[in-house]
Amino acid sequence: MVYIKLSLPQYSDEILTSTTPFLCSTDSLEFHHFNHNTNNCNNSNFGYYNIAAGEMPPYATVDGVPTPKSAAGGGGDDPNTVVDIPETAHQISSDSWFQVGFVLTTGINSAYVLGYSGTVMVPLGWIGGVVGLIAATAISLYANSLVAKLHEFGGRRHIRYRDLAGFIYGRKAYSLTWALQYVNLFMINTGYIILAGSALKAAYVLYRDDDVLNLPYCIAIAGLVCVMFAIGIPHLSALRIWLGVSTLLSIFYIVIAVALSARDGVQAPPRDYNIPGDNTSKIFTTIGAAANLVFAYNTGMLPEIQATVRKPVVENMMKALYFQFTVGVVPMYAVTFIGYWAYGSSTSTYLLSSVTGPVWVKTLANVSAFLHSVIALHIFASPMYEYLDTRFGIKGSALAPRNLGFRVVVRGGYLAFNTFVAALLPFLGDFMSLTGAISTFPLTFILANHMYLRAKRNKLSSGQKLWHWLNVCFFGLMSVAAAIAALRLISVDSKTYHLFADL
């Protein structure tokens, strides 16, 4: 008769408190396990498992190795909806909190900041814009901290947003979350390609005022450069030195934009800060700007970024978040407020199109914005890359012919479609609003609050539960309203301009 050592974890809610080893016969037809929760005597449970048929208790380990079921998602309250979680083909648990903080800061201070003066401040005005940005900072930090604290819920790491949702709710939530996240990241990446193309065109028109190199062509060039970068960088942790390069590039375009805007503001006559448009358009643009506010701070891929941080993962991720929402937001505030102060309601959705100054300085800023967009896109495309690499078993050296060819074909095809959509509908502000409405609101605010409510329901007071439900309802309504507003804006702009417009 052969015996195996079966270890069963003892949990107090989501925290692993101890493990109990048992010796079980592999010939045994039955195994009975009584699990008594040490912190809550009313939550005892009795488990019955048929070992001979291959049944194992959740989270069990056999001779120190997780069983197939223990390596799968929890499936929420329904045991028939267990989600199989694949191992990742990418590197995890290798980065310091400071490096992760720079990844988050790179995202928040990407070339998108050059659009917030026009897409946030112009529709909201001084009071609405300032209050909105500060409030969005606070609520975004809060919502992201909820997700970060669930990273090890249930005694295992959830390295993907969809893994966490699937573990808490089951298979349907896993699929829905992945769909929302895919849409979110696809539109963010589309926006980055629009930004890169706009920066390239802005640099071109400084030297030649003709229609030879219009915006769709610039977007195509930007897409090609993004493909080349994606082929060369296998995974998120491999960015390392590129994070330093991206920081330097962001300093270039932010400092130049702030300096030239400040100079123009000092020299310019009094500006008009009234919110443009009639009453109906003001309502829709205000709602759209609210979606832009949450878009500015949130990635929709926090667990994927947290997967790269070293242990202790929750404490280190909180440090990275505090860095992002304190030091990291200062440059964004500066360029947004000074840009709006300098040009008022006439501020462009791409600030460098509004500034005046030496040609070489503006060229440096635009080229920096172009290159930074290429690097930042890789951060937001990494969940899709990780999914594809894991799905097709891409492992080993990044320079292996098979792996290199895979990245050329698959990543190249994905970014080619991104580029096509960017050239087809190059309305940056509208894309930001739509992204915030249909994916950032649900992923960052609705799902985060409800997951936390579900996971911590035994620890939350009635008041805390009510608070989370209010958040779910409020942001749900905001998501619907913002989606309607964004679709209206895209419809209006599509009629005003045309497909493949040269803006």
Q: Give average pLDDT, whole number.
A: 80
Class from secondary-structure proportions = alpha+beta
Spatial order of the strands in the main sheet? 2-1-5-6
Give the distance, in angstroms, between the N- and C-terminal Cα atoms. 77 Å
% residues in beta strands: 5-15%
* SSE topology string: EEEEEEHHHHHHHHHHHHHH
The major beta sheet can be summarized as: 4 strands, antiparallel
Helix fraction bin: 55-70%
Helix segment tally: 14
From the alpha carbons, calculate the radius of gyration and give it in angstroms. Answer: 25 Å
| Uncertain stretches | 1-73
Keywords: Amino-acid transport, Membrane, Transmembrane, Transmembrane helix, Transport
InterPro entries: AA_transpt_TM
GO cellular component, one term: membrane
Main location: membrane
